[in-house]
Amino acid sequence: MSKKIRYYEGDFKYVVEETFHRQLLYVRPDSDIKWKWLSLSKDGLLIIRWGYPSDGPSGPTWDTEETLRGAFVHDALCQLCRQGFIDPEMWERKINAEADAIWDECGMLEARTEIWEAMLNTFGSFAMNPKNKWKVLEAP
To answer: In 3-state terms, what secondary structure has residue 139?
Structure first.
């Protein structure tokens, strides 16, 4: 038993209050994945569990009801890339397309959706890079 506390530090604005399930359209890993707050089956069922922290929609934007669900799913899939469960080079475009599909479902204006997907395809690889995974810190 450790006397130290281990924690993450980050720019989290939101925390999932109840477990969320999403059947993905495009992302299908070779095997089932389970990591702390996230699970992804090889059939494409994504589970985001209670307590998962997210920074919400990225970029110079406003967080709106239409953007949050897509942002949570995109953040979760990027997290699985950073943790080494999903190959970002293979899945980046499909991960971005998952977010785009959710934004369409949520009624985001088509022009805004197209801009967001273009921004993800241009700048989103940073969020998927394993070099940028959360650092575990310790305090006595």
So the answer is: strand
